[in-house]
Amino acid sequence: MNTGSDEPGEVVVAADRARTDQREPGHNTGRGTGDGLGSRAPEFVRARRLLHLSWQVGVFVVGLAVVVAGIVMLPLPGPGWVVIFGGMAIWATEFVWAQLVLRWTKRKVTEAAQRALDPRVRRRNITLTVIGLVIVAVLVGIYVGQFGLVMPWKIKDQ
Q1: 108 neighbors 9 (Cβ within 8 angstroms)
Q2: Is 103 exposed, middle or buried, given 0-12, 13-18 or 19+ CB atoms closer than 10 A?
Q3: Is the pLDDT of residue 20 over 60?
Q4: Count of CB atoms situated within 10 Å of the CB of 73
Q5: Is residue 61 within 8 Å of 90, Cβ to Cβ?
Q6: In this predicted model, what pLDDT tens digit does every residue of 97-114 receive, in sequence order?
Q7: Angle at Cα 111 formed by Cα 108 and Cα 117, nearest 5°?
């Protein structure tokens, strides 16, 4: 998961770095690095090892509950992926691995959005949609020609 490449779509990562550079003075990221990774727990929590560990366990449990709720929502009605990424964002307040996963995901989503807005890709998608609709219309025409148009509520008792 290399987030430091020069590929298109790095705008999101650069924007993240710019936002982390604008933090108020005295805000420590917890890792001593300038890239915004690390704990975002309050200073008094990070100063005490046991309290910080309890904080991390709490953040993990809450994030896990949100991610599990999102997984449950995938087959059921609800915004499953949005909730899963919300749980990842909760984890990202405390864990570097979640911050890196979110950065990678943001970069990939940005790249996909840029590709989707490309005029060639849009023309291709419109062309494929039209071809699909023509195929469906031909199949419906063949069915109606073969069996006729009989509505289910007008079927005579047999």
Answers
A1: yes
A2: buried
A3: no
A4: 16
A5: no
A6: 888 988 998 899 899 888
A7: 140
Q: Is 96:37 a contact under the CB 8 Å cutoff? A: yes
Residues 1, 107: contact at Cβ < 8 Å? Answer: no
For residues 104 and 3, is the Cβ–Cβ distance under 8 A?
yes
User: Looking up tokens 């071809």, which residue turns up?
Assistant: 131
- pLDDT band, residue 126 (cuts 50/70/90): very high
Structure tokens at 87: 């749980």
* Residue 142 token pair: 């063949």
pLDDT of residue 68: 93
pTM: 0.51
Distance from C-alpha of 76 to C-alpha of 13, rounded to nearest angstrom:
33
